[in-house]
């Protein structure tokens, strides 16, 4: 399970769901009682059919991701693997008689909207940001496929799409070769890097959403979904990378941190803002975790995990 799955499964169990969780190349940080852990490869139609058999609801979170380095390497065709997984799983779900599927899309599918927050209706109003071109279009392909299954196929399969912004939180990937900006900064703060190297100018703006809030949005959509729907999921506000560093160093008592910005290092879109008004209006969902609190929990989790690994537990 990845970042969102690890935060979602405990919440599903609390609500009485019977959970089957997919493991591909990563074991859970700790096995949870009551969860049926299954292995499989979603690029295999046979594995998809086996994994969804007997299920009423499916939450599809698996995807090949990329850090800023990955988006700058020009190997975007690798994201085609995501479309294979998406199409196989949707076909298997319909064949198995699944009632509802929630699929995690991405705000990378939006064209640049500058200072204006992107709304759900902006999806096809222009090309994705140049560095997101391939992943953005593959996400759009799957969204069209989701809508077809929900509105034009027989039998109909209710499919909900969530378009999250930059997700962070406990259980994230903290490998500096593959991780995103917040886990990279958390690790560097905890390890007391000097200088604390930060890629970019520090002025890049992102909407960072806590993984636990994304999990809540998934559950809300599962409960209310009928037919097809798509919603943005974010914090509803943006902040700069420089502001994130300030919060992290303050939370962890790293007041004398020597920050070194690296504007020549790979970065992605300069500004990304999204509107979450539709999710609030239709679902009654809104994020509950402030950036400061989310960063505090992430710091605490990473420090605990790194200590456990060092001690051999």
CATH third-tier fold name: Rossmann fold
From the 3D coordinates, which CATH architecture would you assign?
A: 3-Layer(aba) Sandwich
Summarize the amount of helix as a percent range: 25-40%
Strand order of the largest sheet: 3-4-5-10
Largest sheet: 4 strands, parallel
Based on CA atoms alone, the radius of gyration comes out at 19 Å
Average of pLDDT: 92
Strand content: 15-25%
Counting copies of identical and different chains, the oligomeric state is: single chain
As residue ranges, the low-confidence spans are: 67-72
Number of domains: 1
Helix-strand sequence: HEEHEHHEHEEHEEEHEEHEHH
Shape assignment = globular
Can you count the helices? 10
What structural category do the secondary elements indicate? Answer: alpha/beta
Count every beta strand, where a strand is a DSSP E run of 2 or more residues: 12
Name of the CATH homologous superfamily: NAD(P)-binding Rossmann-like Domain
Distance between the termini: 20 Å
Any chance you could write out the topology, listing elements then pairs?
Blueprint: H1 3-14, E1 19-23, E2 35-39, H2 45-52, E3 57-60, H3 68-71, H4 80-96, E4 100-104, H5 133-151, E5 158-164, E6 166-168, H6 181-190, E7 196-199, E8 205-206, E9 208-210, H7 211-224, E10 228-233, E11 239-240, H8 241-251, E12 259-262, H9 277-283, H10 291-311
Parallel strand pairs: 1-2, 3-4, 4-5, 5-10, 6-9, 7-12
Antiparallel strand pairs: 8-11
Helix pairs in contact: 1-7, 2-4, 4-5, 6-8, 6-10, 8-10
């Amino acid at each position: 399970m990845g970042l969102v799955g690890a935060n979602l499964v405990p919440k599903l169990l609390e609500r009485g769901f019977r959970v089957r969780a997919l493991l591909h190349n990563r074991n859970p940080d700790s096995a949870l009682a009551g969860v049926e852990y299954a292995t499989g490869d979603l690029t295999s139609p046979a594995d998809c059919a086996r994994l969804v058999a007997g299920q009423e609801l499916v939450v599809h979170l698996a995807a090949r991701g990329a850090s800023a380095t990955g988006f700058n390497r020009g190997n975007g065709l690798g994201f085609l693997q995501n479309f294979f997984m998406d199409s196989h799983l949707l076909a298997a779900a319909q064949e198995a008689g699944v009632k509802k599927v929630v699929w995690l899309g991405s705000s990378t599918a939006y064209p640049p909207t500058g200072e204006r927050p992107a709304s759900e209706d902006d999806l096809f109003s222009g090309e994705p940001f140049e560095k997101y071109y391939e992943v953005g279009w593959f996400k759009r392909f799957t969204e069209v496929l989701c809508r077809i299954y929900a509105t034009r196929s027989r039998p109909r399969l209710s499919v909900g799409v969530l378009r999250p912004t930059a997700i962070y939180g406990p259980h994230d990937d903290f490998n500096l070769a593959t991780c995103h900006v917040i886990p990279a900064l958390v690790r560097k703060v905890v390890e007391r890097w000097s200088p604390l190297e930060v890629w970019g100018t520090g002025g890049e703006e992102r909407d960072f959403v806590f993984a636990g809030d994304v999990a809540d949005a998934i559950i809300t959509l599962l409960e209310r979904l009928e037919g097809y729907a798509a919603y943005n999921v974010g914090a509803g506000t943006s902040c700069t990378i420089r502001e994130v560093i300030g919060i992290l160093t303050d939370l962890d008592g790293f007041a004398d941190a020597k920050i070194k910005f690296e504007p020549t290092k790979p970065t992605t879109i300069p500004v990304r803002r999204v509107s979450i008004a539709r999710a609030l209006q239709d679902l009654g969902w809104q994020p509950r975790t402030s950036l400061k609190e989310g960063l505090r929990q992430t710091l605490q989790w990473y420090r605990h995990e790194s200590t456990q690994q060092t001690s051999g537990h």
